[in-house]
Design goal:
The protein is α/β, with parallel strands linked by helices. It has helices at residues 112-119, 157-161, 168-176, 212-217, 233-245, 275-278, 373-376, 384-393, 396-401, 413-418, 425-440; strands at residues 2-5, 23-25, 32-34, 44-46, 53-54, 59-63, 70-72, 77-84, 90-97, 126-128, 143-146, 183-188, 198-204, 228-232, 251-257, 265-270, 289-293, 300-302, 314-319.
């Protein structure tokens, strides 16, 4: 087992971490939703209409360009609404659960690729380059799996896995049959995993050490013309369970964390559950809070009228912008005010002490200044500042030379936090990858 030590990055310490790994049983959700934007690269074409009944694991829609790629319902019930936004963009597909265990059973004698496509689990895999749902026409060079999450207040994926850990070996067997290369699993120091047929690597260092793209870049980087698949260990276990039982499990464990949470905890629920039910016993004033489906760096701002987004098993609740007129503003001498650059006296008390942080950006966009901030937060062999400039200018040749095929928006999330220019780096990277994909297709 190899060990990779990463020095670049930073662990943001926030109030509201979970201290007890016990799991609270959640109530049955009032509604469950699938949000097509969670599956980037798929253009949805509906298979179900409002008012129709659907079984758990039955397709709700397929990809317009690859009809074999399905996105399925997490529960059995009735399609209440196909919610549309501007230009008839599908914002969400809402299903009302009926409480039955009616689920699709897959024929495991069929080719593994076909089973994965029909099950909906294919849509939970991502490919590099472009960080999109993979094309079934391209066989990956390798598969990379991360077994831990290093983001602020992130859940322990060993807790989220629970007894589904027993399906990991089967999932590895399936993936080994779908790639010409190897299956790589990244674990943190002190973690153990029983996964025959894989290359297990221990990653030591601060966030973003848990990002699967960072692990791939420090193991076997992606070059132009190559394709790899990425996923987390929970998705790998779901694949193993599918090829063991013939059914897809959409049950999940969600970590509810953050300063505004009265009792940070793990809650069992189902993917896409409505947040009103998930946060039902949360008595903190949510009106003065920002609810994030995911972590504070890459998550999506939501309300209690929305749903748990598919990629995440994490909800973070932090204070909203409730102090816009702070005394002395940027010149404040508040000893609790955080700064990466020792602008304030916070660092004297230690940077590993949990701090209170709200949703304020505390600044506006300004010109990019070469300070090395991006590179200090990006443990990859690329020049982050130059790559961002190439993306903004639309210079595809430069983007390729600077390693655009290796990256995903989440890899720049920490650099975005540290950026004194206050640029939306994740949005810039996403737009750059989409433009490059359109040009190359």
């Amino acid at each position: 087992m190899a060990t990779v030590k990463l020095k670049k990055g930073f662990d943001i310490q926030l109030l509201g971490a979970i201290t007890d790994s016990g799991i609270t049983a959640g109530e049955r959700p009032l509604s469950v939703a699938v949000v097509p934007d969670d599956f980037h690269g798929i253009i949805p074409r509906m298979e179900k209409k409002e008012g129709e009944r659907v079984a758990s694991g039955e397709p709700l829609y397929h990809d317009k360009n690859h009809e074999a790629i399905k996105v399925v319902s997490p529960v059995s019930g009735t399609v209440k609404e196909v919610r549309r936004g501007e230009r008839r963009h599908i914002d969400a597909i809402v299903v009302i659960p009926d409480g039955t265990a009616d689920a699709v059973t897959h024929d495991l004698k069929r080719p593994a690729l076909d089973v994965l496509l029909d099950s909906g689990l294919w849509a939970m895999i991502r490919q590099r380059p472009y960080d999109v749902v993979p094309s079934p026409d391209v066989r990956p060079r390798d598969v990379f799996v991360t077994a831990f999450d290093s983001a602020p207040l992130a859940p322990d994926l060993d807790v989220v896995l629970g007894d589904k850990r027993k399906y990991i070996a089967k999932g590895v067997e399936v993936l080994n049959g779908l790639t010409d290369g190897k299956v790589y699993i990244g674990i943190r120091e002190g973690q153990s995993i029983d996964a025959p047929g894989t290359v297990v690597t221990t990653f030591v260092g601060p966030h973003p050490a848990g990002n699967v793209g960072i692990q791939a870049a420090n193991t076997v980087p992606v070059n132009k013309g190559e394709t790899v698949w990425t996923m987390d260990i929970v998705t790998l276990a779901r694949i193993g369970e599918l090829f063991t039982t013939g059914k897809v499990s959409h049950d999940t464990v969600v970590a509810i964390t953050g300063e505004m949470v009265q009792q940070p905890r793990y809650v069992s629920t189902v993917m896409g559950a409505d947040l009103e039910t998930v946060l039902k016993n949360e008595t903190t004033n949510l009106a003065m809070s920002r609810i994030i489906s995911g972590n504070v760096l890459t998550g999506v701002k939501v309300t209690t009228e929305e749903w748990l987004r598919a990629p995440y098993c994490h909800i973070t609740i932090i204070p909203e912008n409730n102090k816009p007129d702070e005394f002395m503003g940027w010149a404040s001498v508040n000893p609790n005010r955080f700064s990466l650059y020792r602008t304030f006296t916070t660092w004297l008390g230690g940077m590993k002490k949990p701090r209170s942080m709200d949703s304020r950006i505390k600044g506006g966009e300004r010109a990019i200044v070469r300070t090395g901030e991006y590179d200090a937060m990006l443990p990859m062999d690329i020049y982050g500042e130059f790559l961002i400039k190439a993306i903004i200018s639309g210079d595809i040749d430069k983007m390729e030379q600077l390693g655009v095929y290796e990256i995903a928006p989440e890899d720049f999330a920490l650099a975005e936090f540290a950026d004194t220019s206050k640029l939306e780096l994740q949005r810039i990277v996403r737009q750059g990858l989409d433009k490059l994909r359109a040009e190359m297709s």
